[in-house]
Amino acid sequence: VLSNLLCSLVIWLSLKVQSRPTWWMLLGAGFISGLGAATRYPVAIIAIIPCLYFLLSRRVDSDGREKKFFDRVKAFVSRSLWLIVVGFAAGLFIGHPELFLDSRRVIAAITRETMKYASSQEFNANKLLNLSLVWQYITYVIPFAMYPFLWLPSYCAILYLVFRRKLYSRSLPILIFSALYLYCIAKGYLGQAIFARTTMLLFPGFCILVGLTYGDLLRLLKKQRMSAILLTIVTVLVIAPSVVFDAAYAHAMEQKDVRSALREDLNKMIATSPATIAVSRFGPWFYTVMPAVEPLKSKSVTVQLQEADQPADFFLVGFTGPID
Predict the structure, then answer these.
(1) pLDDT digits (tens, 9 = 90+) for 134-180
(2) pLDDT tens digit string along 84-140?
(3) CA angle 206, 209, 212 (to 5 degrees)
(4) Distance (Å, rounded) from C-alpha 167 to C-alpha 235?
(5) Which of 105, 84, 106, 86 shows the shortest CA–CA distance to 38?
(6) How far apart are CA 296 and CA 317, in angstroms?
(7) How far is C-alpha 169 from the geometric centre of its chain's CA atoms?
(8) Which three-class secondary structure state does DSSP give residue 61?
(9) In Å, what is the CA distance from 310 to each residue of 46, 59, 299?
(10) Rounded CA separation 125/182 (Å)
(11) Residues paired with 165 in a beta bridge
């Protein structure tokens, strides 16, 4: 949630930069991007949003002529880029000072905990153009993350804006950012499209794209009142099921999670005694059993994956659904 809020603020400031760039806006966009990187390191990619808005916006020189792209790049590198970089470093320091004060420990933690989920093989030269994992995210993971129909307005808006050149100045930076982020996470996580949560950083940009599309369509349908009303009704009908689903999901989350109940029961039974908690290698242990027992790991309590015939004090198996 915090990452999405920071991403939204960066997009808002970037839109302001496009219309009237000032030093504090660029510095602020970099600062918020740094705070985002402190929440989750991959969020650092939002720093390219103000850069893209600055580079792709039309600017005129003192003679009233539109600046060429190469001239905009030179102007950006000479001043604006450094404001974003300084702001980013300041935001990252305030959000995660340990990265600067104790970098060795942080790097070791990243290598030990985060990098085990990363897949560098997908970025080999012979696989750079292999987009099968990206397609998996587009066709399955994102629709699952925006269940049941919330992904439809976003996809329709993207298709509309790709062919709406008039809106490129506002839509193209978000489209480029979304494509780059999606490419990186699809090919960077374990080589498998299983992390739906990581796609949620795309949601603020998708909302902006839907808003741009909806506003442009309403302008075009200004004299066609019935068509505008029909568009509004269809939009509400598509979004409403997702709102109902989210409300039901939030209500369900208020109840005690079965993993929490399992962890509490095991903690009571083990108390201060030494114990070995075994987790079956087969089945969906990653999201079911392991989050329940991993916090119990200590000097006297061992948590490990093993076969059913190996000795252990407790043996746990994960299932995809309740057992009848």
Answers:
(1) 888 888 888 888 888 889 999 999 999 999 988 888 899 999 999 99
(2) 999 999 998 998 888 788 878 777 766 666 666 666 676 777 877 888 888 888 888
(3) 150
(4) 21
(5) 106
(6) 17
(7) 23
(8) coil
(9) 48, 70, 20
(10) 18
(11) none
Taking a C-beta distance cutoff of 8 angstroms, is the pair 76, 54 a contact? Answer: yes
Q: How far apart are CA 284 and CA 282, in angstroms?
A: 7
What are the pLDDT digits (tens) for 56-92? Answer: 876 655 565 667 778 778 878 888 889 999 999 999 8
pLDDT tens digits for range 197-226? 788 889 999 999 999 999 999 888 888 888
Tokens representing 171 are 């839509």
Give the rounded distance of the alpha carbon of 193 from its chain centre.
14
Do residues 279 and 289 make contact, with C-beta atoms less than 8 angstroms apart? yes
Contact 221, 23 (CB under 8 A): no
What's the chain's length in residues?
A: 324
Within 13 Å, how many C-alpha atoms sit on residue 290's CB side? 11
Evaluate whether 45 touches 181 at the Cβ level (below 8 Å).
yes
